[in-house]
Amino acid sequence: MTLKKPLLLVASILSGAFLWFLLKKPLPEYDCLLLLNSKYFDYKTSAYVANKTIVIKNAVIADIFDTNPALTLNTTCKLLNLKGAFLYPGLIDSHAHLLALDKQKVPNWKTALELSAARPEKTRLLIGEANAKSMLLAGFTTIRDLGNSGFHLDAKLKKIMSAGPEIITSGPGVAIAPSQIDLKHNPKEYNLVDEHTDIDLLLQNYKSHQASWIKLYADNSNKSPLMAQSLLKSLTQKARNLNLRVAIHAEYAQSIANALDAEPDSVEHFYEIPLSKKTRAATYAVLTDAAPLEKTSASEKRISWLKQNNVKIVFGSDAVLDFTSNFKNRGEASLSSLIRLRQIGLSPQESLLSATATAGEMLGLPIGKIEKNYAANLVVFNSDPLLSLENLKNRTLIIFGGKIVCDNRQVCSP
Length: 414
Known about the structure:
Elements: H1 4-23, E1 32-42, E2 47-57, E3 60-66, E4 78-81, E5 86-89, E6 91-96, H2 109-118, H3 121-137, E7 140-145, H4 153-160, E8 166-168, E9 173-175, E10 190-192, H5 199-208, E11 213-217, H6 229-241, E12 245-250, H7 253-262, E13 266-269, E14 284-287, H8 297-308, E15 312-315, H9 330-339, H10 348-354, H11 357-363, E16 378-381, E17 395-400, E18 403-406
Parallel strand pairs: 1-4, 1-5, 6-7, 7-8, 9-10, 11-12, 12-13, 13-14, 14-15
Antiparallel strand pairs: 1-2, 2-3, 5-16, 16-17, 17-18
């Protein structure tokens, strides 16, 4: 390897860190925050609710009431007049790889993941930090990291990013041999299992690292071999008994059918229509169609099948390498992935719900909605995202945990 590529990588990381330093200049402290004249989208009525004041205290939405200037004259809260701008919950990316290498000129995603696995932990954490910061500035306040993160490096990154975004961790993916990639550079990148694996001991390791999810591979991004159905179901059931939520990677018709039969909390990718129609009441499909796509009949049929079978659609960027070649950072790439959902047959409203309310429901967290007692993770846009998802690029305010990340005095851009 020449010296040029490492120097470019370090320069990219340092430039991102310098931008973050500028944006994190001290702001006045305040105990509460009032957003006046807000106009937010109500997922229950599928309409905007206007002229509301949002009260934020202790990192949550404490109250919502009709805007009345007389009620705010004597308040000690910090006041922000949104002047009718469009207020949304912070965006949620439910399938991310924050610690995976980005923007490298290698032939495919597999090579990118192998290069990433071989890098020192400190370098990977720097990459993860830069990716997470750029995603927060793109409006993503919650990110579920799903594997390709070394041996629980996502848990370390979560501690580093205490000021946002919120990172939901899952540890190493669980797969049968040979996994998705060659593990010679980092045997701990995945946990390999077979019928002889002590599943209870394996799962306790995830609990000890404070993982809240675990990712199982029904397939290794190939139609064969597939994880044995008995093993897949046993892992899923025992994980859920330990209060670990389960995401199952499944790309093909048979592996998707196997995943649905195991009844996980989410099925990742879901590229094909499954051979079996068995779905339980709360099945979530995390769609990761991030690459530029033309609207095809195959896409329409898949979306139609999901809707007819009451499978709820959730957004995931799955950005690793090739999806970001035209963007300067992970935040821009992930936002572009969300915008491109319209090309596979989702309306702007369906796309936005997949990255807010529906994602929050899947994660089982009080996020993704503007309601009392929900997390005060919010994004303000100066133009209507329902008219065009391109308007997601026009951010004027980002709030995480009740604190202002950036506002109209600063550039809310990654």
